Amino acid sequence: MRAPLIDNLQYAKFSPEIFAQMRAGGVDAVHVTIAYHESFREMVLNLEQWNRWFEAHPDLIFKGTTGADVRLARETGRTAIFFGFQNPSPIEDDIGLVEICHQLGIRFMQLTYNNQSLLATGCYEDEDTGLTRMGKQVVREMNRVGMVVDMSHSAERSTLEAIAHSTRPIAITHANPSWWHKALRNKSDAVLKALTESGGMVGFSVYPHHLAGGSSCSLADFCGMIAEASRRYGSQHLGIGTDLCQGQPDSVVEWMRVGRWSKVIDYGEGSAAQAGFPAMPTWFNGNRDFGNIRAGLLKAGLDAGEVGGIMGGNWLRFYDESFGPA
After folding, report:
1. Which range of residues forms the domain containing residue 56?
2. How do beta strands 79-85 and 201-204 pair?
3. How does strand 61-63 pair with strand 6-10?
4. What is the pLDDT of residues 108-129, one digit of tens each?
5. Domain contains 1
6. In total, how many domains does the chain have?
7. How far is the C-alpha of 257 from the C-alpha of 266, rounded, in Å?
8. C-alpha dihedral over 103, 84, 4, 73, to 10 degrees?
9. pTM
10. Rg of the Cα trace of the chain?
11. Band of pLDDT at residue 274, cut at 50, 70 and 90
């Protein structure tokens, strides 16, 4: 039986058509973003929409909460959907909501999006003050209940402090190395070493702003980057987190960047030209294209076992170890 196929970050404009594409691509599990800047109540409304989809399309998708659900998806020919936040906004200023959100099925939470939050500093801020007092308490609580700390949009010091402070391995669900492409969102060698040496996981992104060459990035270049990361950090710590935003209108970029904190889009220094969604690379337009990445990794010199881990086996192991109470 082939290795599992897991995409550990999507924010597509989900629909029955995309769910069918997941099945056509053999995708066993997807971690989907259900909150950027939403309050707790607004996040619950997003859960209601997913419950309607689960009810209407039980032959295609179902809610996942444990690694066992990935195995069930494989056995039944469906896709398990796992929930996560790209910002701690839904827990507001109440640490008790961490456990409530875990009970509702949330399995990943970023401590920041691009801005300073109550917990840590985002990657677009000028000064990185690290984990806040509340941030340290929330990390402990996430460790206790089995919610994964995600630092995909966080600044360097905050990320290193989260790795050090967490008693369980953390994740960077969707980013690439800055030694390959120096985007504000990509991660330094020091961060990736600390992450992987502590047992954490990184998911490589195909979002063009994270790619060397942007939309023109070649499959060979992307897979060569992953092969080099495997050499540096060990393939067992690597996975895919595409950051696929398929079908989303450009207005959604404004929601991501602005939320309610600003009247104008502020992309950070040097990033003013990033308005709207960029064109995807030709080799990845959606859930039917994961085979291109698998073939590219094999061509880049990784063996079948390493490729199987990167395409989903490593995330499945991480799910098994991370989603239950400490």
Report:
1. 6-322
2. unpaired
3. unpaired
4. 999 999 999 999 999 999 999 9
5. no
6. 1
7. 7
8. 50
9. 0.96
10. 18
11. low
